[in-house]
Specification:
Layout: H1 13-16, H2 25-42, H3 44-69, E1 106-110, H4 121-136, E2 140-146, H5 149-154, E3 158-168, E4 174-187, E5 200-206, H6 236-256, E6 273-277, H7 284-291, E7 303-308, E8 319-320, H8 321-324, H9 333-336, E9 341-342, E10 345-346, H10 349-355, E11 358-361, H11 364-372, H12 384-392, E12 396-398, H13 414-418, H14 432-438, H15 448-461, E13 474-481, H16 490-499, E14 503-510, H17 519-524, E15 529-532, H18 535-548, E16 551-554, H19 563-570, E17 575-578, E18 598-601, H20 613-631, H21 634-649, H22 659-679
Parallel strand pairs: 1-2, 1-6, 2-5, 6-7, 7-11, 11-12, 13-14, 13-16, 14-15, 16-17, 17-18
Antiparallel strand pairs: 3-4, 4-5, 8-10, 9-10
Helix pairs in contact: 2-3, 6-7, 15-18, 16-20, 19-21
């Protein structure tokens, strides 16, 4: 029997390629789905539903396209090999250098914050320094900031120039984009109506480029709280780097377009000093270097001073390399200068530290600790080699800030004036003997204690405090909710304050500390604990709370100058805080001395707050007990509070041998160093 053979048949082309003749199963299903949708669409009751579904699909598609087009932020984790550094002596400023600059010296501050556009410490510092410099009368002081929309409502600016910068398009080709610069005058005179020539700061405001998406969305802040928020899909990187490049272009323009009128008594000056504030503006120095062409300048190259305002966070500021290359050609920079890069990010702070003529920090004590005792802080490896290199040459300078009374002022604040809570200005000419003769109740002199009571009374009327709080001691904390502000102490502090029936106001904005861990206390003790985490509310009402407070709680571990504590003194509050060296610059702890302004506790270990909790509770308890005693002796309380305010006023920017004079020496040194460099060429 023959074996069976498998029957075969030839496969025709029509069978081999069925897709050429019949629809695929997916195509059939898709067609049926469309037909069903069309049938539903014909029925009136389904029309709205179909419109809604189509709208959702359109929005999803639009979001996907924007995500593809929008600039990418680098999200690499920071990987650093921990390093130890040998300590070196802190040289500081040469005090033989004159503290006076040549009359008419031009200074240009570059910052994201200034004056009404102030959110934090950088804005307060730039505002205070620029105001003091302009008030001196011999300097030409200027500030460069972005053109935020809310500034237009506050100041009438004039068109100054239309300039141009180059950025890469989607094909990586350089394209020119135009932007406008406006200018307004910020009056720093105590009396703006003074017939004498007013003293002003010229403020240059850089606008977003028009019609260039998404850069035309830059600087769309509706208020100071939105300064560091970028509008989707514009990334923060693009906004920051664009501002740096535009600011460098403006400075170049100001230093090139100099014309002295024929019959002028003095020659017009260009830009003498550029003062960069904060790591987000560090790249200005790189853009200026690339723009500087000797033949195009009628004036010498400006000297550059770079100020670090926060050693805890500024070195962590970074830009994705892809975003940087949109604005500057890095070429082989990551290979020849690897210390500026980590992963796919550039960390620009070290660039400015290396290239500026002088580098400053906002606390002399911390600047000294950084190089002499190798102060430990996160990711210091990003900037420590650069700092040590400058410190060896005496180009790393600590300058302790002053108090800026323009922004935080108990004497002239509008809300305090409206509520009769403003402090009287008779600080220096108060007649103590007259107060004893008249008594508190019959005093013909305005009293600070009365102002503080009125502030508390207004908060009660607004429903922000209870009637019982008028007779309660009020302890205030204002600051970011972050670990380096000492918030680990709060639970123990709350337990103590509740036991003494004290009102504790915790006011700030979210950061790395989980403030939610404290909110259960608000539910358990609503009469004693209040947490305010709305930034706009804090900006609007913060000064009234400061004026009403009896004690300021500042357990901070890292505050560069302790500005919060200094402001507490200005508003008549003794300070309870950690006895760090930076606070000891101006705080006198109560240790048996009669003249004191604070209750300081030792911070045994910055990384272990538990070791200092008992000391903190003792300091806080003593402050509350002493305040209760002062309430029973109102005349003594008035004198005590006045002494606190006097201590704060001694911390002004123009105090003898203070920050105004020190920055003049820094500028003078920077100019001398630059001249030596230029002589080599």
């Amino acid at each position: 029997m023959k074996p069976l053979k498998a029957r075969t048949r030839s496969v025709s082309p029509t069978i081999r390629v069925p897709s050429e003749h019949t629809p695929k199963p997916f195509a059939n299903r898709f067609r049926r789905t469309i037909n069903q949708i069309l049938i539903l669409f014909e029925k009136q009751r389904y029309k709205h539903f179909i419109y809604f579904v189509l709208l959702i699909l359109f929005l999803v598609l639009f979001h996907t396209i924007l995500s593809l087009l929008s600039p990418k932020e680098g999200n690499d984790k920071l990987l650093l090999e921990k390093q130890t550094y040998d300590s070196i002596p802190y040289i500081g400023l040469d005090q033989n250098i004159p503290a006076e600059l040549t009359n008419g010296t031009t200074i240009y501050h570059v910052s994201r914050e200034f004056g009404p556009a102030t959110l934090g410490r950088i804005g307060q510092t730039v505002t205070g320094l620029a105001r003091t410099q302009a008030d001196n009368g011999s300097l030409d002081v200027n500030v460069i900031i972005p053109y935020y929309p809310f500034i237009k409502k506050l100041y009438k600016s004039q068109n100054f120039a239309q300039l141009e910068v180059q950025i890469r398009d989607s094909h990586q080709e350089w394209q020119p984009i135009k932007f406008f610069v406006n200018r307004f005058l910020w009056n720093v005179s105590i009396n703006p109506n003074d017939p004498e020539e007013p003293r002003v700061v010229q403020v240059y405001i850089i606008g977003a480029p028009r019609g260039i998406f998404p850069l035309n969305l830059a600087f769309t802040a509706d208020g100071a709280t939105d300064i560091y928020s970028s509008r989707y899909p514009l990334s923060r990187d693009w906004e920051d780097i664009y501002f740096c490049k535009a600011a460098a272009e403006l400075i170049t323009y100001l230093n090139a377009e100099i014309d002295t009128p024929l019959f002028a008594l003095t020659e017009s000056r260009g830009v003498d000093v550029v003062h960069l504030h904060g790591s987000s503006n560090a790249l200005v120095i790189e853009f200026m270097k690339s723009l500087y062409v000797r033949e195009k300048f009628k004036m010498p190259q400006p000297a550059i001073v770079y100020t670090i305002h926060d050693h805890i966070k500024e070195q962590l500021y970074s830009n994705a390399i892809d975003n940087v290359q949109k604005f500057i050609d890095l070429k082989n920079y990551p290979k020849i200068k690897p210390k500026y890069f980590n992963g796919r990010k550039m960390y620009p702070s070290a660039i400015a530290i290396d290239q500026a003529q002088m580098v400053t920090f906002t606390s002399e004590i911390i600047a000294q600790e950084v190089v002499e005792s190798s102060l430990n802080f996160y990711a210091k490896e990003l900037i420590m080699p650069s700092i040590l290199n400058r410190a060896i040459k005496g180009e790393w300078i600590g300058i302790t800030n002053g108090i800026e009374t323009t922004l935080f002022n108990p004497f002239d604040d509008l809300l305090l004036l409206e509520t009769n809570s403003n402090f009287p200005k008779n600080i220096d000419d108060f007649d103590a003997a007259l107060l004893y003769a008249e008594s508190i109740e019959n005093s013909t002199q305005p009293l600070i204690t009365t102002s503080k009571f009125n502030a508390k009374l207004h908060l009660v009327r607004e429903g922000l405090l209870s009637k019982e709080d008028l007779n309660r001691t009020m302890v205030l904390f204002i600051g970011n909710f972050q670990y380096d502000k000492g918030l680990e102490f709060f639970q123990a502090a709350i337990d103590l304050l509740i036991s003494k029936d004290v009102k504790f106001i915790i006011m700030g904005q979210e950061s790395d500390f989980p403030i939610s861990s404290l909110k259960p206390f608000v539910n358990y003790y609503p009469n004693n604990i209040v947490i305010i985490d709305d930034v706009e509310f804090r900006l609007n009402w913060g000064n009234l709370y400061r004026a009403a407070a009896d004690i300021l709680f500042v357990p901070s571990k890292t505050d560069s100058f302790g500005l919060m504590a200094a402001e507490g003194l200005l508003f008549g509050c003794p300070i309870v805080g950690s006895g760090s060296e930076k606070l000891k610059e101006y705080l006198i702890s109560k240790t048996g001395v009669s003249s004191y302004n604070s209750y300081l506790f030792n911070l045994t270990d910055e990384n272990n707050s538990e070791l200092s909790i008992n000391e903190m509770k003792i300091a806080l308890n003593n402050s509350v007990n002493d305040l209760i005693k002062l309430n029973n002796d109102p005349i003594r309380k008035e004198f005590f509070i006045r002494n606190l305010v006097k201590d704060a006023l001694k911390l002004g920017w123009n105090r003898p041998s203070g920050p105004f004079e020190e920055y003049n020496r820094v500028y003078q040194t920077a100019l001398l160093k630059l001249r030596k460099i230029l002589k080599k060429y």
